[in-house]
Amino acid sequence: MTYSYVLFPNHLEGLKLEKLLKERNIKYTITPAPRELSSCCGIAIRIKPELTKSIQSIVKNHGVSISGIQSLEVKSYFNI
Amino acid sequence: MRDYREMWQSLDMDLEKHDELCEVLPKFYSDIYLSQENRPEGMNYYNFVISEVHGLRIKELVNAKAENQKVVGTFCVYVPDEIINASNAISVGLCSGSDFWIPDGEKYLPRNTCPLVKSAVGAKVSGTCPYFQSCDMIVGETTCDGKKKAWEILEEHTNMYVMDLPQMKREKDYKHWKEEIFEFSSELSKLTGKELTVENLTDSINLINKKRETLQKLYEFRKLKELPISGKDVLLITQIAFYDNIERFIEKTEELIHELEKRVEEKVSVFDEDTPRILVTGTPMAVPNWKLHHLIETSGGAVVCEETCTGTRYFENLVDNTGKSLDEKVEALADRYMGINCACFTPNNGRTEDIIRLYEEYSANGVIYYSLPFCNTYAIEAKQVMDALEAKGIPVIHIESGYSLEDAGQVKTRLEAFFEMLRS
């Protein structure tokens, strides 16, 4: 399964986007930023890839500062 | 997030090694937690806490320290949070649930020590846990031999204070624990400059009772036929209760409870109807020890309750806050804490009674007696508990397993066989 991950420069921007998504009833999952996409510990917001465009416009229209939106295939690392 | 790196550096952490830990945690969390279907939306808060576990919460602690608040680390549910909170200090339950820290722990401790103790020592000596690094005082207690000796090692690395927990429950032991609480409070006031008063202790008892009541409400959902939340998720929430900001934790957990009420109305269950309901009893599961719950819930079972220190022992029984004097209030604290049934006590029949009661309250179908390797008290107590359960016709198996995933396949096979038996 491939998801899009919205990455942020800090958690406050992440929470700002979360609030906007909540208000719009858009499904999202807060997740630790995957290391493949970011070298920093912190949050990312995972969404279905088909929502990427609408998220991009929400981000733009509401001045949320993000470090990018990237897609990543979710795999099992620990095989348990 | 450059600011976190600077913050970690200011806490004298080994950044390179800590980076290895940061590499593993997101993957592990994602495998265990984000693979679940139909989780409540409210779990996003706890996803957030774990994502920022070494970031935002540490920043809050560092900021509080800059305002002259003190941070006090604890390991055990007998250490009274009410006293720490009343002294204007912040209590954090310390990390000791990862095998990442075990090699460093084994540099100081024999290999045949329990993983929880090795992991705690390893976390401190390796300088890779920002919670340990933030503590102005770490409070140990005389529960088991491994811990008692570990405090002597940690004393070389940090400001340790040890509470002498009785091992029996006679009248004089209750009195002794009350005296220990008073002594702890006086030691703490030297650190914080704040004396314990009737007012600040009353407020603190109220707040922490409220946190316990919130957890009690959350656990009520696990008694229902249709389970609106997984056992794995509830374990995570209970673990987070040990170190999150108390007011925020209550607020967010109340929000989740509200969502779960709606799920109940809509008859939403995260498990199939005939899923065996499991009561887990035994040793604590510190973050990020989610192994057993994950194995149970991916092998066809549902965990409905934990009779552990990261379960009911943490929040059952509130502190009676009706006393008027400091003496009465501390006595109420001692009574509440001495009511916890840990295998370090002899005799400990109360624990067996608790397990049987919880088995009925949560309509469980079977019990998993879980112990960490080399945890003598819980391993030895297993026989009498299991005999008592079998005499009542309660199905039970004993699983001894550490933090390593090497035995995951074997544990899974045993679990599947147990659940098959419960279903038939």
Topology:
The complex is a heterodimer of chains A (80) and B (424).
Chain A: E1 2-7, H1 11-23, E2 29-32, E3 43-47, H2 52-61, E4 68-73
Antiparallel strand pairs in A: 1-3, 1-4, 2-3
Chain B: H1 2-10, H2 15-32, H3 43-51, H4 56-66, E1 70-74, H5 81-86, E2 89-93, H6 102-105, H7 115-125, H8 130-134, E3 137-141, H9 145-154, E4 160-163, H10 171-192, H11 198-220, H12 231-241, H13 246-265, E5 277-282, H14 291-297, E6 302-307, H15 312-315, H16 326-338, H17 349-361, E7 366-371, H18 376-391, E8 396-400, H19 408-423
Helix pairs in contact in B: 3-12, 7-9, 10-16, 11-13, 14-19
Describe the model.
The complex is a heterodimer of chains A (80) and B (424). Chain A is an alpha+beta fold and 80 residues long. Chain A has one domain: Alpha-Beta Plaits (2-Layer Sandwich). Chain A has helices at 11-23, 52-61, and strands at 2-7, 29-32, 43-47, 68-73. Chain A has a four-stranded antiparallel β-sheet, covered by helices on one side. Chain A is globular and about 40 Å long. The two termini of chain A are 18 Å apart. The model of chain A has no long low-confidence stretch (mean pLDDT 93). Helices cover 54% and strands 10% of the residues of chain B. Chain B is of the alpha/beta class and 424 residues long. Chain B has helices at 2-10, 15-32, 43-51, 56-66, 81-86, 102-105, 115-125, 130-134, 145-154, 171-192, 198-220, 231-241, 246-265, 291-297, 312-315, 326-338, 349-361, 376-391, 408-423; strands spanning 70-74, 89-93, 137-141, 160-163, 277-282, 302-307, 366-371, 396-400. In chain B, α10 packs across α16 (326-338), α11 (198-220) packs parallel to α13 (246-265) and α14 (291-297) packs across α19. Chain B has one domain (2-423). In chain B, β7 (366-371), α18 and β8 form a beta-alpha-beta unit. The mean pLDDT of chain B is 97. Chains A and B meet through α1, β2 and β3 of A and α2, α3 and α14 of B.
